[in-house]
Design brief:
The chain is built from 26 helices and ten strands. By secondary structure, it is α+β, with helices and mostly antiparallel strands.
Amino acid sequence: MQEHPIKHWITNLSMNYPKRTIILSLIFTAFMASGLRYFFIEDDMMKLLPKDIPTRQTWDEIKKEFGNTEFIYVAFGHPGESVFNQEMIAKVWDFTEELEAMPEVDEVNGVTTMNRMDNDDGFLLIDDLIPYRDLSAEELLSIEDYLNRNPNVKVRFISTNEDYMNIMIQPYDKANYSILAFKIRDLAEKQLEGYNVYFGGPPYITGVMTVLIREDVMMLVRIGMVVMVLILLSSLRSVPGVLMVLSVIFLSLISMMGSMGWIYHFTGSERFVFSLINTSMPIILLTIANSDGVHVMTKFFKKMRLFGDKKEAVTQTMMSLLLPIFLTSLTTIAAFLSMIYSPLEVQTGYGVSVSIGIAWAWILSSTFLPSLIMLKKWNMDSKAVKQSSYLENAIDKFGKGVLNRPKKVLSSGILLVVVGLVGMNWLNVEVDIQSFFKEGSEIREGLEFLDQEMVGTMDLQFRIEGDMKEPDNLTFMEELQGFLEDHPRVTTTFSIADIIKQMHRTVMDDDPACETIPETREKINNLFTMYSMSGDPEDFSSLVDYDYSVGLTSALMRNMSSKEIIKFVEETEEVIDQKETSGLQITITGMLVVFRDLIGLIVRSSFISITVSIIVIALIAGYFFKRLLWGVLAVVPLTSAVILNFGFMGIFGVDLSHITAILSSIIIGVGVDFAIHYISQFKRLVKHGTSPDVLSREVVDDVGYPIVLDALSNMAFGALLFSQFLPIQHMGGLMVFSMVSTSVGTLTLLASLSEIFKSRLMRKEKN
């Protein structure tokens, strides 16, 4: 049979110019890897959202007008011991002073930095709540009394049991959260020694996550490599063979990471920032790059046993595998590139970056790896060359058993798929940040404490455009805050309306009944004027803009489930729509809305990725194999594995998040290799005139072992089970299961269907 000239050209590169091929491969790899110097790690939840959706736009607009509105929370104290004592106040004072000296910190909010309002003969007197570090017992009682009279202020800084103090640190918008988070933690260890200390807030989580992600990736890659080496050694039984496969993996990995850095450097796109969702990328490429190498090495050893000549073995290996390796790479790339249609922009970067790594792994497996094989002097008496393994023999027997009962095997597979479909009914979408961390971890304990004892770390923000001195507008803000505070998870709200009500109460002899919005614009303006005579109007800069035309209303709340988030945000938006706002323009944002939007985007991205990748792979397979039926059959194991994956997630309570949403693309991208190799060998044997009676058995005999070995080496996905992040752990377990289901599905469902449709599939193949 005449082989394609491109096959001959690629094969000749390895056989005739192995050293030259190796050197060129290393040069190109070094260039791609040099982009590592631009590699950037960050995990800002807001940046998961596309820039063109209202939530993100409002967020960016608020930052321009009011600065960074996110806080780092530091809560400390002794359980059961009141915070209203001289030692605690001194600690807060010293800690706050050092925080304010940090160049990354814009403002520190706490009891030692806040003002108090008092009545001075009908005028406002603005002074520091705590004017100096060392206080008398009488002054401490005065401070406690003032905070008790202003519970909306007290709740932000004092715990429910009055035994913990909370400090809210506002970083500059462009601050390096990673540096700041650890500077604050180091300072707290020094200044607050002896106290129980808890940290939280989006900037803190973002900063710590950067380090945790870096540590996680390094650990997971090491574990994955160890697992893979052990499996390869036991299966290939050749140290040089394993090292050759590992070299392809390593070069592909650094090329992918480097290309990510290059793209980020030249485009500045947030899509190519390495975040939590990308933690699985190295393990994904590690297993994919391994797949091609495993097929090449196992085929080479088999041909060596048959021909006893290295050159002939390499020729036969590459002639039979170049097309399957190309097709598996192409279909895998297609599966990951389907992520570019995802509404989650970070998934676009994930898909493109992994695709680059896969493409380079394909080139290395087709040229670099056979060149290494050609330079090695192989011992014909070695176990790898001389004899087949016990696993190889066992798989051959398994394949024959399947082919003897194709209809029964197919029926069993269909039954499992039905179980998966039923389980999908219980699948839950969840983006709870606390659930990302293990129980007992520092971050989780901090977030749980802040939720239970302090104001929580979730927020809603309302940008309200209109005259902020108009009573009706301020009354609307007051009503909105009242609605929000009625929710059991909302701990406090604050806006310029609160300041005005407090000023009005103060000038009216501190009468609680006068804590209201004045009825005229003139009276409101007078209150601002009185404040400016004793205080600094810049005190309102985080609540209203300089000309009082835009106000910011914020709500702090404890953690909610995704269902609670969706319901609460919808109810809030209805209230805004129904209220008579006199021309006010109101937009809503904050972490709560981010999570709401993420839920919808996750569902959409999963559906789009699955649909696009399956259709594209079916079309590619149908085109190259010249039969649409082959395209359909190629995606049967993949579709079944995806259904089983989501079904088992529902059955075992594993949530679908922006992390686990990429599972479908990974399953399809990695699992398609098995089907492509099976179909390629089927067609190849038909063209070589193999008898229909033994055709399917010879296909299984030839590709069954490499497929299972490939799946076993992909058990490196199990390294993800050791991640510090629970969604990544879930991905590891599910990917191990998926590798089993796709490989077994190929050798059962695809093999059974091929046997059932054998006569139809063989038509025209010999032509």
